[in-house]
Specification:
heterodimer; A: 191 residues; mainly alpha; 2 domains; 9 helices; globular; B: 112 residues; two-stranded antiparallel ribbon; 3 helices; rod-shaped; disordered C terminus
């Protein structure tokens, strides 16, 4: 972990020195997790991709002011979450937001294969459809906690939520995830 | 379904942006990187022109004579160009420092 952080600082140092090609390493490293986080907020892949692109540009511009003593991961996820939230608010203000009722409907999948024996791609699709049914905060916190593997203190920095709110929302999110997964799958999941 | 299963499933559900996403970002980054020096060059040219103007004006404008009690103090016509050159030197020194900071970041942030 420490080694990876040091190599990240070396990459940032090189970018600051003018070698922008090193920025590709940062893009490749964080694009999947941060894209998933953006999808949690915007619930639309095209918007999420645009927001993520904007976030990377902001990060590149702000890199010269980045304090190397702090974590790049947390700093970058703050940019992603804030950019997505701003976009979400703008879309809401301009009434361009898609009606999320369609996402909230839980469609039961006709599948008799046991959950743990399902094809990985099928399971991935199912998990993402379940995450889309969750509230924005719930999906975001689940992904920050389990996907980005951040602790409560880091999540607090990124979202600006209180520690108690994070814990309660995470608890509720886990419950909703399990319930919605079972509803969508059709019957109780035993792994 | 326990916490470990939720962890596995959410890890499995990681999404990826389109295949050309990295190229798009790097394209934007490189064009941004190329834009920065051009913008600075433009600003530098304006400032250089302003400094030249100050220097030329300083040649024609001289400090008027000052009367202190019974003494009349006069200044050499060279004084104003010298003052303007010192002024220009200070400005360029500051500009160089700012340019250095923009290019390499805050010196306090250098990785040890």
């Amino acid at each position: 972990m420490r080694k990876s952080r040091n190599s990240e600082f070396e990459i940032i140092k090189k970018i600051k020195g003018g070698d922008t090609s090193y920025f590709k390493l940062l893009v490749d490293k964080y694009k999947d997790v941060s894209f998933s986080l953006a999808c949690s907020i915007l619930k639309n892949e095209q918007d999420a991709e645009d927001a993520l692109q904007e976030s990377y540009i902001k990060a590149f511009k702000g890199l010269r002011n980045f304090d190397s003593k702090s974590s790049f991961t947390t700093w970058f996820y703050i940019i992603v979450v804030n950019t997505c939230k701003t976009r979400y608010k703008n879309q809401k203000r301009n009434n361009q937001l898609i009606n999320f009722d369609s996402y909230l409907k839980i469609e039961i999948i006709e599948n008799k294969t046991p959950f743990n024996e399902m094809d990985l791609q099928e399971r991935k699709v199912l998990v993402n459809r379940v995450l889309e049914t969750l509230k924005i905060d719930e999906a975001l916190l689940l992904r920050l906690f389990y996907l980005a593997e951040l602790n409560i203190v880091e999540i607090k920095k990124i979202t600006g939520f209180k520690e108690s709110k994070i814990k309660v929302t995470l608890l509720r999110a886990r419950k909703s995830f399990k319930q919605n997964l079972e509803k969508m799958y059709g019957f109780e999941i035993t792994i | 379904m326990n916490e470990q299963d939720i962890f596995k499933n959410i890890k499995l559900g990681v999404k990826s942006p389109s295949s050309d996403f990295t190229d798009k970002v790097m394209g934007e980054v490189s064009s941004l990187h190329n834009e920065m020096p051009t913008e600075n060059k433009w600003k530098f040219n304006i400032l250089f022109f302003a400094c030249c103007l100050i220097f030329i004006l300083s040649v024609f404008i001289s400090i008027p004579q000052i009367q202190v009690f019974n003494f009349l103090i006069g200044f050499s016509p060279v004084i104003m160009p010298i003052i303007s050159l010192i002024f220009i030197f200070v400005i360029f020194q500051q500009l160089y420092e700012i340019r250095y900071r923009i290019k390499y970041g805050n010196p306090n942030n250098v990785v040890k």
